[in-house]
Specification:
Blueprint (H helix, E strand, L loop, with lengths): L1 H21 L3 H43 L9 H18 L20 E2 L4 E2 L6 H10 L4 H15 L8 H25 L9 H33 L9 H20 L1 H13 L4
Antiparallel strand pairs: 1-2
Length: 280
């Protein structure tokens, strides 16, 4: 029995010793727990900091984007609108205070009295056709010398039995038709000038391009007339005193540069109206 007691005591001692050597001290366990807790806290702080940094970056990006956005989303249209309004103002100012002379800038007797307006059966010199005449003058920006010199050339052609009535009428009507269409476009845009910012940039670009088409046609007409006047004065290719040569010189230039483009005026006018009608 004594032997059993000793054996049991030895076993208990061995187990206690093993337990003591295999377990960490309490302080170590506490420190480990603190360390784990600290790591967890630091991990949470890192995640929170990363999230905060991301949110701040996003906020800064949004602020930057907001800064790039103009107060008016159509701010890009402003140069187009300014240029368009400038051209319209110039056109309106050009005609202010202009009056036809009693002799209709030298064209009354040799030109206007000899041509008949098919729409009212009145000759061009009569009061019923005053608007037609004034639009012809305006097509040349009411430049007195250019109008009078060109009128003399048209009168020279009208005096020729072979060429009278056709080319002279075509030239007068071209100036009238071009200016009539141009004035309609100017008036349309002028009515909506305070609301042009309401147009999307793409539509504003299209409007400016359409206007430029007719403005360019008018400038081509003015340039052609001045070229004809200069070449006539210089007697280029002996056109000054030979009506046939003069007609042969003018007609191809007129047909290719002006006549072929006149039909586009009405279409362009309609296109501009369609664009402007989108403004409420």
């Amino acid at each position: 029995m004594k032997k059993n007691i000793l054996n049991n005591t030895f076993i208990i001692f061995t187990l206690v010793a093993f337990a003591l050597t295999s377990c960490k001290p309490i302080d170590s366990l506490i420190n480990d727990n603190k360390k784990n807790t600290s790591n967890n806290i630091q991990g949470d702080d890192s995640s929170q900091q990363a999230s905060s940094d991301t949110n701040l970056a996003n906020a800064n990006l949004e602020d930057a984007n907001d800064a790039k956005q103009p107060e008016n989303s159509n701010e890009a249209s402003k140069p187009l609108i300014d240029a368009l309004n400038k051209k319209i103002t110039e056109e309106q100012e050009m005609a202010k205070g202009k009056q036809e002379s009693d002799e209709q800038h030298g064209m009354k007797t040799d030109v206007f009295k000899k041509l008949t307006n098919s729409s009212n059966q009145k000759t061009y010199d009569e009061i019923e056709n005053k608007t037609l005449r004034e639009q012809f003058y305006a097509s040349l920006n009411w430049e007195k010398t250019t109008i009078e010199d060109f009128g003399k050339i048209i009168g020279q052609i009208e005096k020729d039995d072979t060429n009278k009535g056709t080319l002279p009428k075509d030239l007068i009507d071209a100036g009238h038709k071009l200016q009539d269409g141009f004035e309609k476009i100017v008036n349309q845009i002028d009515l909506k000038k305070d609301k042009l910012n309401d147009l999307p940039y793409e539509k504003m670009t299209e409007l400016k391009a359409k206007f430029d088409e007719i403005d360019s046609l008018k400038q081509n007409w003015i340039n052609l007339v001045k070229e004809i006047v200069k070449d006539h004065t210089d007697d280029k290719d002996s056109i000054k005193n030979d009506v046939k040569k003069l007609v042969d010189y003018i007609k191809p230039k007129y047909d290719s540069k002006i006549k072929s483009e006149l039909d586009k005026i009405a279409t362009t006018n309609d296109d501009i109206k369609t664009i402007l009608d989108t403004i409420k």
